Amino acid sequence: MQILAGKYKGKRLQAGNDLSVRPLTSRLKENIFNIMHQFVAGAVTLDLFSGSGSFGLEALSRGACRVDFVESSRRAAGYLQSNLSTLNIDPGCYRIHQTDAFRFCEQPQESYDLILMDPPFKFQHLQELTELITSTDLLRPAGILVIHHEISNPLAPATAVYRIEDQRRYGRSLISFIRRGE
Questions:
Q1: Tell me: the pLDDT tens digits for 40-53?
Q2: Confidence band (pLDDT; 50, 70, 90) for 123?
Q3: Contact 115, 48 (CB under 8 A)
Q4: Hey, which of 24, 81, 103, 116 would disulfide with 29, CB 3.0 to 4.6 Å?
């Protein structure tokens, strides 16, 4: 696993050998960032379920001004910290929150231009968390939420609080690009 483009292009990332840290494949990550490239430069970014940080680190490499990483697993947060150290990223460009995604999102301290979310495929509360994110000020009005989820765990097509701008299927993965409702 490595950074695909930008300042840290080609740098390798650690994720460990256990299956509890399931990083995005390079192909998926490249496709996602090709689609949303105009949203990354200068973006204040949130990486939920960050694991080893692959999603958020790619955003930093491509010009995001800061990334907040949210990861509940101590082991995964250790890989994330190791990757940040290896890349020698300025500590002013990131914050690590070792907490549950719901807990973090329920009381937003800040709002974000870009929210990247890669929950475990069997995560049972995808709909609720998506609605929480888009119904609060966590996602800025012009911001975008990008979710990598399993096709068997779909989102409702649209609700009062969000709309799906685009959705792409890659094998058993769905990538949903979501905006706040109007």
A1: 999 999 999 998 88
A2: confident
A3: yes
A4: 24
Residue ranges making up the domain that contains 65? 1-13+23-36+50-107
The answer to whether residue 119 sits within a structural domain is no
Examine the domain organization and report whether 78 and 168 are in the same domain.
Answer: no
> Which residues, 6 or more positions from 163, have their beta carbon under 8 angstroms from its beta carbon?
178, 179, 181, 182
**What DSSP state is assigned to residue 3?**
-
**From the CB of residue 141, how many other CB atoms can be counted at a distance below 10 Å?**
9
Q: What is the pTM of this model?
A: 0.91
Q: How does the average pLDDT of the chain come out, rounded?
A: 88
Place of tokens 């231009």: 113
Sheet-wide strand order for 44-48: 94-97, 66-70, 44-48, 112-117, 139-150, 173-180, 162-170
CB 104 within 8 A of CB 136: no
H or E segment and range at residue 84: helix 74-86
Q: How many other C-beta atoms can be found within 10 angstroms of the C-beta atom of residue 90?
A: 9
CA-based nearest residue to 131, from 117, 142, 121, 120? 117
Digit-coded pLDDT (tens) for 52-109:
888 999 999 999 999 999 999 998 888 899 999 999 999 999 999 999 999 999 988 8
Question: Are residue 2 and residue 77 in the same domain, yes or no?
Answer: yes
Tokens representing residue 140 in the block: 């800025």
